[in-house]
Every structure is written in C-alpha cells, then in structure tokens.
Design goal:
12 helices; 2 domains
Length: 438
C-alpha cells in the first residue's frame, strides 16, 4: 500500500513525512530539477520563494500559535525551521538554503518515501493522492486540476529584493528591533527624513513596471500580505509610513529622534551576509528597482543579488470543492494541500499538508477523517477553506479573527490573544490523545 503526494514544497514534504511516520509508503512526485517555474531557483525541496520569515514567534499571536500547534503535532517543517533560525526580532526567520537542505535530506533519507523526479501530467488514480503541487503548479498539471475541480482562480504573488550586507552604508543605518524587542541586531534600519521620503515616494509610484500577460499591472489581484510596494504606495502618500516603512518604536541613534520613515532589512542567512528589504515585494523592472531603491540613503550603493519578482499563483474555490479534512467533496480519495487550497502563508501551507497527510492515512485505513477543534488555529483554517457560506472566497492566513469568540469578554487585545492561545493548545492536547496524533 502507498499514497501518492504531488509536489515537494512545504505542504508536500510535511504531508509525505506525516504519512511515512505512520508506516505507509509514499510516492512523492516532484518535477524539479528537471523542470522549474520562473520563480524557482533551487533544486532543493521546500524552496522559500518570497520572504524567509515564518512570521511571529509569540505563542500569544496567531502565527505563533499556528507554529506551536504544528510543533505539538511533530511537524517536520517546524523542527527544521527551529534549527535554521536567524535573528529576526519577534519573528521566526530561517536561513532559506539551510532550511531547504535540511528538509530535503530528511525526505530523501526516509526509507518509506520514494521520490519520483518527473512532471505529473495526469492525476494518478492508482491510490489515494494528495495534490500539494502548490500555487506554482505547471501549466499541464494546472489544467488537470481544473478538469477535476471545474476551474480555479488566479492571482499574482510578489517577492522582495535581497542586497549584500557589505554594500549597506551603515553610517546611514542602524541596528535595532522595534520597541527593542528581539535583540539589537535583528534588523538593519534605513531611516529617511521627510524630503528623502517624498522624493522616494514620487519615484516609486511613477517607476516602470514589468508587464504581466493578461493582467492589469496597475491593479493586479494579489494577496494583501504580498502586495507590491508600488501598488501599496498608490493608495496614498503616507500609506508606506503606516505600513512597511512605519517608524514607530524606532529611534535613530544619530539624531535621538524617530525618523520620518524607515525601511527595515532582515537577515537572509546565519552569516548575515545577505539582507532582504522587508515588505518591499515588487514588480518594478530590474533597472527601476536599482534606481528607486538606491534612493534610500543607506542603500545608495547597494548590491542587489536578487531583484524582486512577481509570479502567477492559483488557488481553488475551496468551499465548493473541499471538505475541512482537505479531501474533495466529489472524490474522497483525492486530497489537496498547500496554498492552492486557499490557506495563505508558508506555515499555513505546511499545516494543511500535515492534516491532509494524517487524513489520507486514515482514509487508507478506513478510519474516519478528522478536523482539529475549531478553537485551534489549524482547525479554524481547515473550517474556513470549507465554509460554503463564504461566497467570494479569498485566501486566508492565520489570524485571531477566525477563531470562535471567547465565552468571557476581554477588552485588552494582548490578553484576549493569550486566552485564545491557551484555549487552542488545551483543545489540541485533548485530541492528540483521542486521535493518537502524538
């Protein structure tokens, strides 16, 4: 007996691990290195395309709660991420190459996982199958998915540029975390005064963008969390100052005052030789990225080792197609996992793969599939993607708003999040025993 898993991204690798952990053989299909999309650069599994940040660490936050739930369910991704962490203030960020290499090694060395390096051009019907091909599935596979699902929805996703540490002018920048949280060296901060910001803003909104076939480049349909900085800037002159360039919680040691605007740079690797421009996902043409972003004083001579890119993603109209166990309504032996299901984010994708893998094994063993309790973040996300009352379905990341209301009214936002977290982890511990997930 075996289960097919299509795609060795975050969802696929977590899924394959969870299946193998339960003693079932896995046939893991991955088209790399034979074929890659425009967004993929590495031959390794679990390549992080956009940011290297896995969002907040605090268990009392939505993203932190999600990761803690995954840890308690023995997530391969979380074990590798924790080992590959790099300084990122209150966030969990990883050395992306080390992370991918570690996950790849774990998967390839697992005796129950057979990696088949080929492009899948037809959905297998020889066994239970989990489609974790991701939002960057090949055109052929995407067409096959559309056949069995009755179509899909497309949007565009953007990545931020990366610069070398040695090219950053530290006389015009400073190390600090916002409100001094997470260590003094978590971020490099690139401050701007009012005149510098206004000149930068005008250059940004008027800069030339890369054409995208069949898409209104002035108003593309993208995840809010990956909104290109030039599109975000169009919403208003101060939008960036209240978003990715907000100066609150920071004080420039050269002046003793809060800057007018700040670009934060986050380390990409343990050696701290590379930094990405936080919140600066972009679709500007490469020469324009160099010209405009170099207007930030600390980046006047920046060496860009990777420019920002924008690429097509695809997700399903999941409430009409999927159950909360990630199986298809019309074919119980086919499961989906990852961002293609409408969960937004790296760890959200991994969590969907974890649950899809567990449920694929339960289906194989003729055991009732599960959805984690609604009080848990994973359970809430699972229910969201299958909620038929959602008519205009859009991707959703971990957030406190999708959890059920607390019985008691707590006005303080931080205290309320902490209570949600405690309730979620308590509920999870109970079902770990009930469903032998430990």
């Amino acid at each position: 007996m075996y289960i097919n898993v299509i795609g060795a991204g975050l969802a696929g690798c977590e899924c394959a691990y969870q299946i193998a952990k339960r003693g079932i053989n896995v046939r893991l299909f991955e088209m790399k290195p034979t074929k890659k999309t425009a967004a993929h650069k590495s031959d390794l599994f679990c390549e992080l395309i956009c940011s290297n940040s896995l969002k907040a660490l605090r268990v009392e936050s939505a993203a932190g709660l999600l990761k803690e739930e995954m840890r308690r369910l023995d997530s391969l991704l979380m074990r590798c991420a924790d080992k590959c962490a790099v300084p990122a203030g209150g966030a969990l960020a990883v050395n992306r190459d080390d992370f991918s290499a570690m996950v790849t090694k774990e998967i390839r060395n697992n005796p129950l996982i057979e990696v088949i390096e080929k492009e899948v051009t037809e959905i297998p019907n020889d066994a239970i199958t989990v489609i974790a091909a991701g939002p960057l599935a090949s055109e052929v596979l995407s067409a096959e998915i559309q056949k069995i699902c009755g179509g899909g929805l497309s949007f565009f996703d953007a990545a931020a540029p990366i610069v070398t540490a040695e090219s950053i002018d530290m006389e015009k920048a400073f190390f600090a975390s916002r409100y001094d949280k997470g260590g003094d060296d978590a971020y490099i901060n690139c401050p701007m005064n009012k005149d510098e910001y206004e000149a930068f803003y005008e250059a940004l909104v008027s800069a030339e963008r890369t054409p995208l076939h069949g898409v209104d480049v002035q108003n593309p349909k993208v995840y809010e969390g990956c909104m290109p900085v030039e599109i975000l800037a169009q919403r208003g002159h101060d939008t960036l100052r209240f978003g990715p360039m907000k100066p609150v919680g920071l004080r420039d040691p050269r002046t003793g005052h809060r800057p007018w605007a700040v670009l934060q740079l986050r380390t990409e690797n343990a050696e701290k030789s590379l930094y990405n421009l936080v919140g600066f996902q972009t679709n500007l043409k490469f020469p324009e990225q160099k010209r405009v972003f170099s207007m930030i004083p600390a980046l006047h001579d920046a060496e860009f080792i990777r420019y920002g890119v924008m690429h097509r993603n695809t997700f399903l109209d999941s409430p009409r197609i999927l159950n909360s166990d990630f199986s298809m309504k019309e074919n119980a032996n086919i499961f989906f996992a990852g961002q293609i299901t409408g969960v937004e984010g790296y760890m959200e994708s991994g969590a969907s793969g974890l649950i899809a893998g567990i449920n694929a094994v339960r289906r194989l063993n003729n055991i009732e599939t599960i959805t984690l309790p609604k009080e848990t973040m994973i359970g809430a996300l699972s229910r969201y993607i299958a909620d038929e009352s959602v008519k205009d379905f859009q991707p959703m990341g971990a957030n406190i708003g999708i959890l059920p209301p607390l019985e008691e009214k707590i006005r303080d936002k931080r205290e309320r999040a902490a209570k949600h977290s405690a309730c979620a982890l308590d509920a999870l511990e109970k079902v770990k025993v009930d469903f032998a997930l430990a």
